[in-house]
Amino acid sequence: MKNALLTASMTLVMLSTQCLPVLAKMPKIVPGSEAYSRVSELTKDITWNHSLDRAEAQAKKEGKMIFWVQMLGDMAGAT
Amino acid sequence: MSLSQEPAFSALQENFVCGVRDISNEPYAGLSGRHETSGNAVNTTNGAGPHNLQLFMLSADGTVLECLPGFWNPSDLVEEMKFAGQLNQVWLDPHLSSTQKTQDFRQMQIAHIQEHSPQMVRRSKMQGFDQKYEAEHRLNTSDTIANRNMITPNMLAPGGKLPQEAFKTCDEIMHERMASRPFVPIQRFDVAAYVEYGKPKYDKHEDARNSDGSVNKEMAKAAPTMGNQDVLAQERMQMRKKRRMQMDGSNSNDMNNVSSYPTNNYTHGYTTTSTGNAQNSVRNY
Q1: Alpha-carbon distance B110 to B72, whole Å?
Q2: How many structural domains is chain A composed of?
Q3: Which of B5, B57, B127, B164 is deepest in the core (most CB within 10 A)?
Q4: Contacts of residue B207 in chain A, CB cutoff 8 Å?
Q5: Any domain includes B68
């Protein structure tokens, strides 16, 4: 009985450790609500110029560099 | 999006004026699943999805200091922002000649590869499907491959596995490509050639995943897409061409140079060479 229990528990440990690499490969999902919150912060707290000329003028005035994103879609909408 | 996460968010606010452009109509744009802002998201590796997203860091006059292709981890992004600041100092230095600035730019880009942390390098591994794409389509010409001799035909068969060591990491590829583009105005930056690696279609199927992270294939198949819809047609055309060449018994080297991306055939003012050095028309931003 004791041997059977020991065998069963060792099997469970082996199975679980074999499962870990498979589970570890699954990407971490960021839920939609959190993704929405992040995008909202990004678009509300930072002004995103759509004109490079305007961005350059502002950067020269403020002594900053320009962070210019080229992407599929709209930052505040579908991407 | 990693831009909203610290430390990237604060670094953006403090050091940069920000701008954005939709590249859906650009010939170099890839194809992706369409995701609303309330849809799920996934973290991925540095450099994944280069055709769909480019993060430029420019001097105030529009000169390109850095261009990060695809997704970048927020911490790694901040390190590259600091590096862009160093390059900006070189660009703005009135005591340096143009020749000296160009030389410094090249040297600094290559040297910076060695400054990347082991964690950043680990986060910059090319996606397996991108590696396979490069090995299948550009085995003899791709600058993403570190050692061609490590890649054998059986590795490209279904179920085959490519050795990670055969490929460079995206952080290395990025700096090497930047080194050959010293202080270029963004209007003349050859984006098409710069982002050319990996599959044109990139989609992690974020909105078609089950709770355990696995992909619901039926949902993924039915999901809408956005970007360059010609990508799929081009891929199909190239695969048909490759199959025809295989049936004709063509030389395997020829097949390895069948690129999925037509060169010297762009509209919208871009032309590129197969080595990736482009001669752009001036692009109006």
Answers
A1: 19
A2: 1
A3: B57
A4: 32
A5: yes
- Phi, psi angles (nearest 5°) of residue B148: -65, -30
Residues sharing a CB contact under 8 Å with residue A23, sequence separation 6 or more, in sequence order:
B212, B213
Which token pair is B93? Answer: 């230095």
- For residue B224, tell me if it sits in a domain: yes
pTM of the model: 0.74
Phi/psi at B61 (5° precision): -95, 10
Partner B, chain A 45-74, Cβ-Cβ below 8 Å: 45-56, 58-60, 62-74
Q: Name the closest residue on chain B to residue A57, using Cα atoms.
A: B60
Per-residue pLDDT tens digits for B237-268:
767 776 777 677 654 444 444 443 333 333 33
CA angle B190, B195, B199 (to 5 degrees): 145
Whether residue B74 has pLDDT greater than 60: yes
Other CB atoms within 10 A of residue B9 CB:
19
Most A CBs within 10 Å, among B6, B12, B28, B37, to test the A interface: B37
- Give the domain extent around A15: 2-62
